[in-house]
Amino acid sequence: MLVVSSNAHRQHNSLEIHNGVMALSSESPSRADAILEAVTAAGHGVLEPDPVDLELVGRVHTSEYVEFLSTAWTRWHERESGPAAMSFMWPARGFEPKRPSDLIGQLGYHSFAADTSIVPGTWQAITSSASIATTAADHMIDSGLTTYGLCRPPGHHASADQFGGYCYLNNAAIAAQRLLDRGAERVAILDVDYHHGNGTQSIFYERSDVFFVSIHADPLEEFPWFAGHADETGTAAGAGFNLNLPLPRGTDRASWFAALDAAADRIERADVDALVVSLGVDSYVDDPLGTFQLTTDDFGKAASRIAGLGLPTVVIQEGGYNGAALGANVGAFLGSL
Ligand code: SP5
Ligand code: ZN
User: Between the CA atoms of 208, 67, 11 and 284, what dihedral angle is there, to the nearest 10 degrees?
Assistant: First the structure.
């Protein structure tokens, strides 16, 4: 399988609040390096992405958000002294925010969590990651072959105008939009990351051309806390085109695969032309951020079930934080797909 990958991600080495102090993020450059090493060793071909298509990015993100991301580090660095730009206030319940004019207020307006900050190379890395998603979608259409985008930073927590959960630009949404723009009438996004893909859900919540299906830890018990419940099914034209399958912390393999069967059944009945998989391998039994019990072999089994759908498929990398197992887990999925 062709792997789309770039070294540009290494410029993004961000900080997060961990146990009350700023620390290096779990979402580290070594993640993508480990995956690339494993997929190269497995014999998959590697392709560099085309330049980012900002017109396409602007079809799933607001222009003021993209402008904000492209200038935030420079604006921060001109005036502040810290190593990472991060907000300390967000418009929580009860606020009805207008977009502030000042950088500090805009940081709060355009983000939702203190696990994600902007550092000098963030813009270069996130545009590279988006271009990987776009190039993977293009390659899949042009070749007819399943294609993998080794995206880093990940994307599924990013909404049209907010970053968080280690995500800035929503790579899976960008890939889905590309498939639609190039002729698909409806696309399914299957998100198997341990965490709910709140950003992807939000981007397509009122649309019927993207069916979003997510298997994840119950937000009553896990990040992102405020989205991902089973009763979130879409609104307006999108009513019925959002399916959340939340599972308890500690979910075992049998229960996870029952949810995957339910997801696959619904995708089979949704009349879609193509599939985007948001592949988070933080559902692994030994992931430092996860509590599910999937083994390395299980990622191969999951890929077989997904391949059984028989849909043109683009795979986009999301989370996964066990550095020693990351390559094997992604490799098991791609090898079986
Ligand atoms: C893409 C993805 O999987 N995002 C997950 C973001 C979760 N962020 C909150 C993590 C809270 C636990 N912090 C542990 C930090 C250890 N360095
Ligand atoms: Zn995750």
Answer: -20
